[in-house]
Amino acid sequence: MGRLKTDICIIGAGAGGLSVAAGAAQMGARVVLIEGGEMGGDCLNHGCIPSKALIAAAHRAHLARSGGLGIAPCDPVVDFPAVMAHVAATIATIAPHDSQQRFEGLGVTVLRGWARFTSPQEVAVGEHRIRARRFVIATGSRPVVPALPGIETVPVLTNETLFTLRDLPRHLMILGAGPIGCEMAQAFRRLGSLVTVVEAKSPLSREDPQATAAVLAGLQAEGVDLRSGANVVRLRDLGGQIEAVLDDGSVIVASHLLAATGRKPALDGLNLPAARIACDYRGIRVSANLRSATNRRVYAVGDAAGQGQFTHLAGAHAGVVIRQALLSLPARAPQQVPRVTYTDPELAQTGMTEAEARAIYGGRLTVLTEAYARNDRALTEAAPQGFVKVMAVAGRPVGATLVGPGAGDQLALWQLAIARRIKLSAIAGLVLPYPTRAETAKRAAGAYFSAKLFDNPALKRMVRLVQRFVP
After folding, report:
1. What is the chain's alpha carbon radius of gyration, rounded to the nearest angstrom?
2. Binding site per annotation, positions for FAD
3. Would you say residue 1 has pLDDT above 60?
4. Which SS3 state, helix, strand or coil, does residue 41 take?
5. Which of 34, 58, 221, 294 gets the highest tally of CB atoms within 10 A of its CB?
């Protein structure tokens, strides 16, 4: 039995855990990293990377099928095994950055196996016992498969198994119309599958209704069968096909079933009571600095911290932990976390939605909307669908909603502006390259001042006086 003493023991080699490990090791700390599954975690192997690689291939097929701008449309030949080979190759290209070899090269002790707390100061993994000054739980999350009647009798795909497919589903039924459900619905439809999405509540329910409507209109225009407010009351295996009976009496028969109904923190097996670590359905109970509320040796980052399930949030959490655990500096988890749904059109959000801002600021809120139809770059590409909506209070943005091509990339400006409390006047005064969609940000910000400049009688009188008397 090997016994190790270390400064930081990190459980989980996903985005958050790897960032803590790399930073801590390079700053001189002794680091032990434990991973029972694949290095790189869900994002690299089953989430962000494979899904965006699949979406990119589906987009190529859609462009060929759509034509336009004088280019004749054509029916693309989709080689689905080659598409999935592209997905696998993308993972393989990025994997060395997250590999055990790289982290051992940084001086990290990497142990492969499932960690289990044996006391508030110690974890066990295989034959090893690790005692650490600080622990970081970075175990991510796992997909939730809903407890529907008959679901145990049918094969169910999740994001952890979807990208192992090598044959294109003839008819893919997706349970859940959140971001993952909508992204995969559009991608598989573009690749040639029939797609039916069943959502018990409202699709993309967290998002701005105007933005959601634009996304859903795009999905339905491409042939996605979207069943909103529908519940599955029974599932049945028909011998190679899956039958779903909905509460309105309708029946769906599909070749494949994907559960995209949410995720839960992956905390099973850690034996948290032995370490006096409190948790609930959201994750480890932590304070604003990500420290366990019941064991000060322990931090949680990423999905395990229960504050949002985003790779970029896990990376930000890692910085919070490094500042505290290594440098003894105060730090707090970020409150403003941007998010993007990678459909076509993309939907990007940072800060408050319009409804959230109205609930807090009421009549003090100004909503500024700039349509892509007024943007020259969008017109040159014959892609005028989309808009920028900015929620502003006292001359500063408090939220931004973007819908359209590249919305996620354009969100960066608004994320910076809200996080750093930059005034709309600064954005309106930017000199931006022409023609770009980024100009919609400048025009939206400028609209805040239009009434003050162009509908101001006093200002007009002053201009006339200047023109009359100033040589």
Report:
1. 25
2. 52, 139-141, 303
3. no
4. helix
5. 34
CA 355 to each of CA 1, 253, 308, 352, 367: distance values in angstroms, whole numbers, following the listed order: 57, 38, 20, 8, 11
Q: What is the pLDDT of residue 451?
A: 67
CATH of 151-262, one of 3.40.50.2300, 3.30.70.80, 3.50.50.60, 3.30.365.10: 3.50.50.60
Give the pLDDT confidence score for residue 355 in this predicted structure. Answer: 97
Secondary structure class of 445 (helix, strand, coil): helix
Do 199 and 230 contact (CB within 8 A), yes or no? yes
Sign of CA dihedral 275, 277, 281, 283: negative
Burial per residue of 105-139, b for 16 or more beta-carbon CB atoms within 10 angstroms, e otherwise: eeebbbbeebbbbeebebbbbeebbbebebbbbbb
For domain 345-454, the question of CATH label 3.30.70.270 is answered with no
CA-based torsion, 354, 359, 360, 365: positive or negative:
positive
> In one letter, which amino acid is 61?
A
3-state secondary structure of 290: coil
Q: What is the torsional sign of CA 182, 184, 188, 190?
A: positive
Helix (H) / strand (E) containing 86 = helix 80-94
Q: Which residues are annotated as a binding site?
A: 52, 139-141, 176-183, 199, 262, 303
CATH 3.50.50.60 in the chain: give the residue spans: 2-39+99-143+264-325, 151-262
Distance CA 163, CA 259 (A): 13
**298-300 and 128-137 as β-strands: parallel, antiparallel, unpaired?**
parallel
Helix (H) / strand (E) element for 263: namely strand 263-265
pLDDT in tens, 227-245: 999 999 999 999 989 999 9
Task: Record the tokens describing residue 232, joined without a space.
Answer: 């599955």
Residue 344: other Cβ atoms inside 10 A: 20
Name residues whose C-beta falls within 8 Å of residue 314's C-beta, 6 or more positions apart in sequence: 14, 15, 16, 19, 138, 301, 302, 303
User: 266 in helix, strand or coil?
Assistant: coil
Please give the helix or strand (H or E) that residue 283 lies within, else none. Answer: strand 283-284
Task: Look at residue 463 and tell me whether its pLDDT is greater than 80.
Answer: no
CATH class of 2-39+99-143+264-325: alpha beta
